[in-house]
Design goal:
The strands form 7 sheets. A 7-stranded mixed β-sheet has the order 2-11-10-9-7-3-4, sandwiched between helices. It has a 4-stranded antiparallel β-sheet with strand order 12-14-17-16, covered by helices on one side. The protein is built from 16 helices and 21 strands. Helix 5 packs parallel to helix 12, helix 6 runs parallel beside helix 7 and helix 8 runs parallel beside helix 9. By secondary structure, the protein is α/β, with parallel strands linked by helices. The relative contact order is 0.13. The longest helix has 21 residues. Bound molecules: pyridoxal-5'-phosphate (PLP). Pyridoxal-5'-phosphate (PLP) binds next to helix 6.
């Protein structure tokens, strides 16, 4: 419905009808039954939710259950008391952490709280260039001086890869005043860095390592998945439980490792500083339920199913010469439940369109060369079989009849030209200019496509011709005056 129609509609008897566009949108989606989902949230329309919690949700409607902390005898989030405290302690035990903190506003708020806790103004911080935009927000909040470390570039797939431990060592040698190393593992597409080697290097230089493990919250519950950085020497880790763990959107956990040197009281203070004072008990309960499910026998079975499904997909597609599925190889390991797939002759965006329009399948995201599909704990084998059949059909068919105008390029693998820190740029005067006129100017904003929220530009970086293909959808860019 356009903006004209979005105005309150007067009916014949002069009564003002209600119109709520978001409500209308979710109604439409619920009525249509939606699509077959290989994306976040990992509970996949409820199939991956603890049965006990599902019963509660179906017996009492959301409005009956909705409340905030302090009421309903659930305790408080900040400081943590009562059942919320107990739930956080159980999470710490399940994940093997010293302490765990439930996050509303996702892993994003965990990253910001970690930045405020560990970084002092002008501290040099070594950060993987493929980090999520919330870490840049943390850099602005804490006045950090980020030193970017470039992960491996897997040009074939147009994605960022693992961080080379030797590159970390080199940077620490060139910049002995670096105070913190912060990397993302797994990457959005599932590539895992050698955290043990990186944490050993950090220990040698006596600085903490933070790992953004937003996409790895299942790992602690299956020996077939990579080992969590919590057990490999990282000081703290964030997990977006909503992405793959089965909790509701925007609910996450921050874990502090057992031998971490992080000042936990300061971290608690900063989490409180950033959090809402009205946490939703439904979101908190969903994290608690997800933790309980993941560590139960039934929950573990769902994880094993997701891994088996991943093996099935790779096996089924392996003889199709024009289909490529990102998998373990001599250079890196991946989380098998993440399927990054490319088909020769197709862009990721085109594949996404075909999957949606022809097969009613929705995937997680695309790059220039392929797309990411998540095999969630909530996906059943029939869905996975249908997904494979669909990919096979695309691989042997000619889809030229589907009109698709490819204009945008996606994840840039560029080396930034840094003119000042993000915070310096953040506080300078800015203006909006056309995309063409922005070349040669300094960005005043974070420009990041979501998903995955990895940025094209950070405040303080020079905009060059090389950025143009990635910025086509922006008519105007905010630059420093
Ligand atoms: C690597 C990474 N870290 C952090 C985040 C932020 O997580 P959330 O959406 O839970 O705030 C994301 C989101 O996509 C991410 O991909």
């Amino acid at each position: 419905m356009g903006s004209e129609k979005a105005k309150k509609i007067k009916s014949g008897n002069n009564r003002t009808e209600t119109y709520a566009p978001i409500l209308e949108a979710i109604k439409r989606s619920a009525i249509s039954g939606g699509s077959i989902q290989f994306h976040i949230p990992g509970h996949t329309k409820g199939s991956g939710i603890l049965p006990d919690f599902k019963v509660l949700l179906s017996k009492y409607d959301a409005a009956t259950l909705d409340s905030t902390d302090e009421f309903e005898s659930i305790g408080t989030l900040h400081p943590s008391t009562g059942p919320i405290k107990e739930a956080q302690e159980l999470a710490a035990k399940a994940f093997g952490a010293k302490e765990s903190f439930f996050l509303l506003n996702g892993s994003s708020i965990g990253n910001m709280a970690l930045a405020l806790t560990l970084i002092k103004p002008n501290d040099k911080v070594l950060i993987g260039r493929n980090c999520h935009r919330s870490i840049v927000t943390g850099m602005i909040m804490s006045s950090a001086n980020p030193i970017w470390i470039t992960p491996k570039k897997h040009e074939k797939y147009s994605i960022w890869g693992e961080i080379d431990p030797q590159a970390v060592k080199n940077e620490l040698e060139i910049n002995p005043d670096i105070k913190l190393v912060w990397i993302t593992s797994p990457t959005y597409e599932g590539i895992v860095s050698d955290i043990k080697a990186i944490s050993d290097i950090c220990k040698y230089y006596n600085i903490p390592l933070i790992v953004d493990e937003a996409h790895g919250c299942l790992w602690n519950f299956s020996p077939k998945l990579p080992t969590s950085a919590l057990h490999l020497g990282a000081s703290a880790v964030v997990h977006s439980m909503h992405k793959t763990g089965g909790s509701f959107s925007q609910s996450s956990i921050l874990h502090v490792a057992k031998d971490s040197i992080i000042d936990i009281e300061r971290l608690k203070h900063n989490l409180r500083l950033l959090h809402t004072t009205s946490p939703s008990i439904l979101l908190l309960a969903s994290i608690d339920a997800a933790r309980a499910y993941l560590e139960s026998d039934d929950g573990k079975k769902l994880i094993e199913n997701a891994i088996d499904n991943a093996i099935y997909v790779r096996n089924e597609l392996k003889d199709y010469q024009n289909v490529h599925v990102l998998s373990n190889n001599k250079d890196f390991k991946i989380d098998p439940t993440k399927l990054f797939i490319s088909i020769d002759g197709f862009t990721g965006a085109r594949l996404e369109t075909i999957l949606k329009t022809e097969f009613n399948i929705e995937i997680e995201s695309t790059t220039d060369y392929g797309f990411l599909a998540l095999l969630n704990i909530g996906n059943n084998f029939d869905e996975v079989k249908y997904f494979v059949q669909s990919i096979k059909k695309i691989a042997i068919s000619n889809y030229h009849d589907i009109s698709y105008m490819e204009k945008l390029k996606f994840m840039p693998l560029l080396t930034p030209i840094i003119k000042m820190t993000p915070r310096e740029a953040f506080y300078m005067e800015s203006e909006k200019v056309s995309l063409e006129d922005s070349i040669g100017r300094i960005s005043s904003q974070i420009i990041a496509e979501c998903p995955p929220g990895i940025f094209i530009l950070v405040p303080g970086e020079l905009i060059t011709d090389a950025h143009l293909p990635y910025l086509r959808k922006y008519k105007e860019i905010s630059v420093l005056k």
